[in-house]
Write a structure and sequence with these properties.
heterodimer; A: 500 residues; alpha/beta; Rossmann fold; 6-stranded mixed beta sheet; 17 helices; 22 strands; B: 354 residues; mainly alpha; two-stranded antiparallel ribbon; 4 strands; globular
Chain lengths: 500, 354
């Protein structure tokens, strides 16, 4: 791939990125969320078309218009979310959607071929098993087989180990090695540094859509150097904030355990921490390590299987969301569009979605419409929400203004505890700054703020203390003034601090 | 030149009004095609239908009387649809209402006659509500698909009603149907065929409008319907509201059944599965779940029914009313895409983004 550029409205996702994959090589593609890794790969498999630049496969210039095109060229991708039909068998899933399949597929032959393939690469699966009954690791093997069956030579794996247990990860490593010895190649997207070191031959790092480094893995001294390459060293611009004077513990989480439905490794594994009033407690970690579930447990949206949650001194473990809201908790959820706002309702209605229960906005069961209008008008002005009017449907606003709408509603309602999950995700500089300033303002006014973020810079700039989560556990809790992106990056990758 | 749909920047108000009107016209054109295929003259037929529905004072009265259960069923379905709970069981809930009131009229003879009507109506409403609450509860508790349960429960209660009027509750004379309700317990007529049920229906329109648009609960129902997950994040209890919403929806359908049998049929008999509950789905959808608009749509639907009754006498295809009711929804569903989207030609689009 040479000089690939791809822009989306308002964002340059890839800026003249070149990528070379040799036969028999594993290339680890590294970068923070939003660095442009997925976009680049999606162009390789034909889901997107590059705006400029060209793609050569085996030395031939190719236009890849669809996943069918890329499959024909021997390129296949395994997405983070598996594309399997749960109530069909392994063999059926493997041949599902193949174009040259006869009307009545010769299942006997197909199964034989699958068994042969799985022996060759050490991918143990039983073709007759139903997908539902397989573990996540086994399902991944089915995905790999699916590609091999179709004759893929280049495999793209998007965070393949995110869902695997350490044992399954080791198996995957073995499988990859066998495939390489047969002349196949792989691109491996990951956030975990130690895997990069053990799996790959070459490392390529993307940052903000640009390729910032390509290096043979052997030339990298240690995980530390890798973390530095990924995060980069950016100058932090500081925000005004008051002195750090933490008060009472407002959020106390003790030995919290959450298990996935159907078994597997725990989503939350004995998580304990507390957030005091007047402090911003940051949670760092790569998405999918349990942070979002943790906040949903605290806000009552998810049930926990063990441990306790105290809010403002009261035991609120597994209480209803309403009880927790009434306990004074505000929540800026991870998924703005799906959890934060009702897109088809107006800005004004969305702004009143927390306070409509209070005497300020309703009298008994009846809403005070004119009072609500004044209330919404006031918030739109105070939080500088850009909207044609308060009657405009929220879905027509920009991401930044949708987030400001949520921020306005939650901060206005906030009575001591504010939980913000990825609050600046996908926002431009201005909106991001507004979000961060508001969080700090809440802290200075004595609220306990829990901030979940993927951006280390944000955490270092805003938070007072930072906990790092990895695979459902808290790796460590650090003082934000005394830590560095490098140290956090290591912990995020699951590498414990030296001397422990 | 290829075309494709592009999302509008704003919901088009013009289209919100135009689409139903154009859809209505398109469905009449489609209906004309059907008529031509069955070798009938569309103009003559439509004229006969119009006459049959509004041609005389009596005919207008019939149409209005028919619009009452239709409007109520439309309102009932509308409440559930607001929650995105696909209640297609208003038909069954209506029948539950009829069974409820008939039970009181026939067996609660220890009551003074003047009490039979109010108590019968209350019991009818309760029966409808409970019948609807079952799928509501199943959905809330175990996410059982409501489209299937509400539909299937229609057939259960249709069969049960049949058993009642043919066997268990059959009047001594005749071969089907319960004995008529005591005349003193009938819902009185107010203008020819038009009965006091009109008051109930219109009052309910106002009450429902108030509940849905002015109260906290209405606000919560709206939130749940438009984004269940966000509503949950704001502390709205989804499960409880689904059950409550279905109780209300079923209660209204039950009221429709109780009113129609107290005012028109005066018994439980063949024809209790009138199809009002199914037509209610069309009414709810066409009126965009707005109670006031439902009045107009219910009148159109009633006119189609009374109008096609007139066709029978003239030896014209009398099933035309039902055909039209079915046809109306198709262009509307197809057309409503233009409220949020506009049609753009592919060529001009690619030019815009080189």
């Amino acid at each position: 791939m040479i000089d690939i550029t791809k822009t989306f409205p308002g964002v340059v996702a890839n800026d003249r990125v070149s990528l070379t994959l040799h036969k028999g090589e594993v290339l680890a593609l590294l970068g923070e969320n939003g660095a442009g890794k997925s976009t680049l790969m999606n162009m390789l498999i034909g889901l997107y078309q590059p705006d400029s630049g060209s793609i050569f496969i085996n030395g031939v210039h190719r236009q890849i218009h669809s996943p069918q095109d890329s499959m024909a060229l021997g390129i296949g991708m395994i997405h983070q979310e598996f594309m399997l039909v749960g109530n069909m068998s392994v063999a059926e899933n493997i041949v599902l959607g193949m174009k040259d399949l006869p009307f009545v597929p010769p299942m006997g032959e197909i199964k034989k071929k699958i068994t042969a393939l799985s022996k060759r690469y050490g991918l143990q699966v039983y073709p007759d098993k139903i997908i539902h009954d397989l573990s996540v690791g086994e399902q991944q093997r089915v995905e790999i087989l699916k590609l091999l069956y179709r004759g893929a030579d280049i495999l793209i794996l998007d965070e393949p180990t995110a869902v695997l247990t350490p044992g399954e990860s080791r198996d995957l490593n073995e499988i990859l090695k066998r495939m390489l010895s047969e002349g196949k190649s792989a691109i491996f997207i990951t956030h975990k540094m130690d895997e990069v070191m053990s799996f790959s031959h070459t490392v390529q790092v993307l940052r903000r859509g640009k390729s910032v480094a390509v290096k043979p893995t052997g030339d990298i001294a240690n995980v530390q150097e890798l973390a530095n390459m990924m995060v980069g060293r950016d100058v932090l611009f500081s925000l005004d904030r008051g002195p750090y004077e933490p008060g009472l513990a407002m959020v106390e989480v003790k030995d919290l355990v959450m298990l996935p439905i159907g078994g597997g490794k725990p989503i939350l594994d004995n998580v304990s921490f507390s957030v005091r009033s007047g402090e911003i407690f940051g949670i760092a970690g790569v998405a999918g390590n349990g942070q979002q579930q943790l906040t949903e447990a605290i806000t009552g949206l998810l049930h926990v299987d063990g441990g306790s949650i105290h809010l403002g001194g009261k035991n609120m473990t597994n209480k209803s969301p309403l009880a927790i809201i009434k306990g004074g908790v505000s929540h800026i959820p991870a998924d703005r569009g799906r959890m934060g706002v009702v897109g088809d309702m107006s800005v004004g209605e969305n702004l009143s979605m927390k306070k409509y229960r209070t005497a300020e906005l309703s009298h008994n069961a009846v809403m005070k419409k004119s009072r609500i209008r004044r209330f919404a008008e006031d918030l739109i002005e105070r939080f500088t929400i850009k909207t044609p009017s308060q009657d405009t449907s929220v879905k027509f606003l920009s991401g930044g203004n949708i987030q400001k709408t949520i921020l306005a509603r939650e901060i206005d309602f906030c009575r001591g505890i504010l939980i913000a999950v990825y609050p600046s995700r996908g926002l431009d500089v201005g909106a991001t700054e507004a979000v961060r300033q508001n969080l700090i303002k809440q802290r200075d006014q004595g609220s306990a703020v829990l901030l979940v973020s993927e951006e280390l810079e944000e955490l270092l700039m805003v938070a007072d203390r930072i906990a790092v989560m990895f695979e459902g556990r808290i790796m460590d809790i650090l003082d934000a003034n005394k830590t560095t992106t490098e140290e956090l990056g290591m912990l995020m990758a699951g590498v414990a601090r030296e001397g422990r | 030149m290829r075309t494709h749909l592009q999302k509008r920047d704003n919901r088009s108000m013009r289209m919100t009004i135009l689409v139903p009107i154009i859809s209505l016209l398109v469905s009449f054109l489609l209906g004309a095609l059907v008529l031509l295929l069955s070798k009938a003259n569309p103009l003559v037929t439509y004229q006969a239908m119009l006459k049959g529905a509004f041609g005389s004072q009596t005919k207008i009265q019939y149409t209005i009387a028919k619009a009452v259960p239709l409007l109520l069923c439309g309102l009932a379905v509308g409440v559930a649809f607001r929650l995105k709970f696909w209640n297609i069981g208003a038909e069954g809930q209506y029948i539950a209402g009829v069974i409820g009131i008939t039970w009181v009229m026939q067996f609660w003879t220890f009551l003074p006659v003047w009490l039979l009507l109010p108590i019968g109506m209350v019991v009818g409403v309760a029966c409808g509500a409970l019948w609807a609450a079952i799928p509501g509860f199943l959905k809330a508790q175990w996410s059982v698909d409501e489209t299937l349960t509400t539909l299937m429960m229609n057939y259960i209660i249709i069969g049960y009603a049949e058993y009642l009027y043919i066997n268990a509750w059959k009047a001594p004379r005749g071969n089907m149907g319960t004995i008529l309700y005591p005349e003193a317990a009938w819902l009185p007529r107010i203008w020819g065929r038009v009965h006091a049920g009109v008051y109930f229906a219109l009052a309910l329109v106002v009450v429902l409008y108030f509940i849905l648009y002015k109260t906290r609960w209405g606000f919560e129902l709206n939130m749940i319907g438009k984004n269940r997950r966000a509503a949950q994040c704001q502390g709205v209890c989804i499960k409880r509201n689904i059950v409550l919403g279905m109780l209300l929806s079923g209660a209204i359908a039950g009221l429709a059944g109780a009113i129609d049998s107290a005012a028109v049929t005066h018994q439980l008999t063949k024809g209790v599965n009138s199809g009002y509950g199914f037509t209610g789905i069309i009414i709810a959808w066409m009126s965009a779940l707005n109670p006031f608009v439902s009045i107009l749509v219910a009148l159109i639907m009633a006119a189609l029914e009374t109008g096609s009754d007139a066709l029978q006498i003239m030896k014209l295809p009398s099933a035309m009313g039902e055909v039209m009711q079915g046809l109306i929804l198709i262009p509307l569903l197809a057309g409503s895409v233009f409220i949020d989207y506009r049609l753009v030609s592919r060529a001009s689009h690619t030019e815009a983004t080189p």
